[in-house]
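Today's session is about reading a structure prediction critically. Students often jump straight to the picture, but the first step is always the sequence itself: look for stretches that repeat, for charged clusters, for runs of hydrophobic residues. Only then move on to the predicted structure, which in these notes is written as discrete structure tokens rather than atom positions. Here is the chain we will use throughout the hour.
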Amino acid sequence: MSSLPYELNARVRAVAGIDPELRPATKPQFGHFQSNVALRLAKSEHRPPREVAQRIVDELDASDLCEPPEVAGPGFINFRLRTDVLAQAVTDQLAEPAAGVQIAERPQTVVIDYSAPNVAKQMHVGHLRSSIIGDCFRRVLLVLGHKVIAQNHIGDWGTQFGMLVEQILDDGTDASSLSLADAEALYTRANAHFKTDEDFAARARARVVKLQTGDEQTHRLWQQLIDTSKAGFNEAYRRLDVLLTDDDLAG
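Below is the predicted structure for this chain, in token form.
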């Protein structure tokens, strides 16, 4: 159906000699489309706009697309597409994978960086906003035929993980049993501990070094925090119907 306005516009242009610039009608009683082309031509043709409009209507061959056009007001032309043409266009769309959307002539590769929540913390409205906007862009670009690379740069490194791992060890917590809400509560305790206990702060900083150098115990607890967080993130994405998956993660 999306090609009908273009076809009608082209036929009117062939008669008028300039782009009629069809626009959706302002009110249903005016039909589907309107054009002010006669008003724009009136001066150069030295004729009243309504006469120019009537001349275009008389010369136009579009009976296979629309009902007889109407001249309205000071010289507007109203067009109403035929119901059988509309019905056929809608039926034809059933066989079109893109439902009539014009596919890009030159598809591009587009990288979308969105969401980016932090491990061991629940997402806030800023993360939700960027997830939804990013996903809208992704869906539109895919339908238009572009290749989309989604990137979800989760925060999974830095001092906070020294704090978290050290707090897990101090508490004797089974990191594999934590929910995302539990992990955030753990972070709150660890952060308070870090600010009030210099010995803990020193051990937390040393724990970051252990993580960076591949200490097995530290890495295992860090990975468990990531797995817990991913499960929480994915549940939020599922509820939002967002296309992000673990394949899009880039920590």
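Discussion point for the tutorial: The longest strand covers residues 109-113.
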